[in-house]
C-alpha cells in the first residue's frame, strides 16, 4: 500500500491510493472526518464523484441515506466487476423500504445488445435482519435482464464488515462477507446485462431509503481472483485498525 501526493500548481494537494492490486481500478473512496473530501476518488487518473444531499462525517466513516444523501460516482457498469465495501446498516433492516444499498447501480435499463428490460447493475445491499445480498444483473436465458442476486445468512447487518461482490459473464456472482468468513455463490453464469446508470455509494435509484455507514468503497472493472482480493483486503484492514474499526 502507498499514498502518493501530487500537486497542481503547488496549491491544492490531491491524494491517491496505490492499491496492492490495481487491475481494473475505477474508484477508491475513503470516508472519514470531513464531508469536503467525500467526492475524492483516490484511484489514480479517474474522475471524482459528486456529493448528493448532506451525508454526515464521522471520524471513521460517512453516514448516507438512500435517495437523499449519497455519493454519485462516474463509474459505469462493466461485464467484469469487483466491488469491495466496508459498511454497516444504521438500523436493523426488515426489507427494501428500510434497507440500504451500500454500493450499486440499482436500477436502470439494460444497455447490452440483445438483452432488454430493467438491469440492476452490480450491488451489495442490506435489506434483511440476518443476511446480506450481492447481485449482478444477467440475461435470464430469453434475452431479458434479471437481477441474479445471491443472499447469505449468518450476517449481522448492523455490525462493521468487509464485503465484496464479484461477477462476470461465464462465472456466477460471488458474495463474500470477509469479516464473517462466509462466501455465497449464485446459480447463473449467463451473460451480464449491463446497467446504463453510474454507480452510487450509499443509495440506489429507488426503493432503498435506509441509512448506512460506509468507511471505504472500491470498484474494479475486473473480476479479481481470491489472491488479488486478499491483497487489497490486507491494506484495507491496516486503515481500519488505525480508525478503530474491527472488521
How would you describe the overall organization of this protein?
This protein has one helix and 21 strands. The chain has one helix at 226-243, and strands spanning 2-8, 12-18, 25-30, 50-52, 56-57, 62-65, 70-76, 81-89, 100-104, 108-109, 118-119, 122-128, 131-136, 138-139, 145-146, 149-153, 161-168, 171-177, 182-185, 198-201, 211-220. Helices cover 7% and strands 44% of the residues. The protein is mostly beta strands. Strand 10 and strand 11 form a beta hairpin. It has one domain (24-243): Jelly Rolls, CATH 2.60.120.200.
Please describe the structure with a list of short key phrases separated by commas or semicolons.
247 residues, mainly beta, 7-stranded antiparallel sheet, Jelly Rolls
Q: Kindly report how far apart the N and C termini lie.
A: 18 Å
What would the principal axes of the Cα set say about the shape? globular
| SSE ordering | EEEEEEEEEEEEEEEEEEEEEH
Task: Give the helix/strand class.
Answer: mainly beta
Estimated share of beta-strand residues: 35-45%
User: Can you give the mean pLDDT?
Assistant: 93
Task: Estimate percent helicity.
Answer: under 10%
CATH architecture title: Sandwich
Q: Biggest sheet, open or closed, and with what strands and sense? A: 8 strands, antiparallel
Q: Tally the beta strands.
A: 21
Rg to the nearest angstrom? 17 Å
What are the segments in which pLDDT stays under 50 over at least 5 consecutive residues?
1-13
Number of domains: 1
CATH class: Mainly Beta
What is CATH's topology name?
Jelly Rolls
Number of helices: 1
